[in-house]
Write a structure and sequence with these properties.
The chain has a single domain, classed as (Glycosyl)asparaginase (Glutamine Phosphoribosylpyrophosphate, subunit 1, domain 1, 4-Layer Sandwich). It has eight helices and twelve strands. The strands form two sheets. An eight-stranded mixed β-sheet has the order 4-3-2-6-5-1-11-12. A four-stranded antiparallel β-sheet has the order 7-8-9-10. 31% of the residues lie in helices and 25% in strands. 57% of the residues are buried. The structure holds aspartic acid.
Length: 296
């Protein structure tokens, strides 16, 4: 099977001053995942490595770089799906987990698919997944440079010094597909608000023999349209990854008038990505490429 991997660093009104950092962060994360795949590692390991790299990069709105709620806390969401087993692991509203994707991966083999807040953090404690003081996220947020806002930016997508839900999809040599997503959610969200990022089928989806998808954008719209699964349905009807991505982003705009983007790999190893926002940072690797190709 051909190997393939793609990551994104969020869609929205990314300030031009951040273009270089966002693309470099995506390229580094794609390389981290690609190294795993090329060494014979699984798509699960590759996607995890790529998302950890993005969560640890304060450029992005995930892990350390998460935005804060209206009340000034970070509430992090993440999810991962294994296309071989259709297992899902997800967390929502965690405040102390440094890398929510590592906790989501720990939940993957459990009978539960989604754990919230303190219940999820108890699993992190049991499995020695690094916990931090909630101040870790608040201080990182305060350190982030503030950026000029475009006057016409959609308020919920305004850049707040850091920006960008993250996600990754990989296809490994055994034909297994894994997709994941991680976010701090919308800036200034009401406490308790959960978007699409931890919701399988909406924010991410993977199914061997079909494809894998990871989304970014106005999460409520992605939940309503079940966007990630919708992309896989387009692939099942015969579209390749790019055609499926384009078709579903067009539906997102037409049916909800909301904004976002997504990345896709189909079972044949084709890469696709699309957005109806001003920008979306991404990077991908295929076997014909010497280094990750990044863009925005
Ligand atoms: N989809 C994320 C959410 O709704 C936000 C984003 O992708 O920018 O929480």
């Amino acid at each position: 099977m051909p190997l393939a991997l793609i990551v994104h660093g969020g869609a929205g009104a990314i300030a031009p001053a951040r273009f270089t950092a966002a693309q470099a962060g995506c390229a580094a994360a794609a390389q981290a995942g690609w190294d795993v795949l090329c060494a014979g590692g699984s798509a699960l390991e590759a996607v995890t490595a790529a998302v950890v790299a993005l969560e640890d990069n304060p450029t992005f709105n995930a892990g350390t770089g998460a935005v804060l709620t209206r009340e000034g806390h970070a509430e992090l969401d993440a999810g991962i799906m294994d296309g071989a087993t259709l297992d899902v692991g997800a967390v929502a509203g965690v405040r102390r987990v440094k890398n929510p994707i590592l906790l989501a991966r720990q939940i993957l083999p459990l009978p539960q698919v989604l754990l919230l807040g303190s219940g999820a953090e108890a699993v992190a404690e049991q499995h020695s997944i690094p916990l931090v003081d909630p101040q870790h996220f608040i201080e990182a947020y305060r350190r982030a440079p503030s950026e000029p806002q475009p006057d016409d930016a959609e308020p919920s997508l305004r850049v707040e010094g850091k920006h960008g839900t993250v996600g990754a999809v990989a296809l490994d040599g055994a034909g297994h597909i894994v997709a994941a997503a991680s976010t701090g959610g919308m800036a200034n969200k009401p406490p308790g608000r959960v978007g699409d990022t931890p919701i399988a089928g909406a924010g991410y989806y993977a199914e061997d023999g079909v494809g894998g998808v990871s989304c970014t954008g106005q999460g409520e719209a992605f939940i309503r349209l079940v966007v990630a699964r919708r992309v896989c349905e387009a692939i099942e009807r015969g579209a390749d990854a790019q055609a499926a991505a384009d078709a579903v982003i067009a539906q997102l705009g037409a049916r909800t008038q909301m904004e976002g983007g997504l990345i896709v790999i189909d079972a044949a190893g084709h890469i696709g990505f699309a957005r109806n926002t001003a920008a979306m940072s991404y990077a991908f690797c295929t076997e014909s490429m010497a280094t990750p190709q990044a863009g925005i």
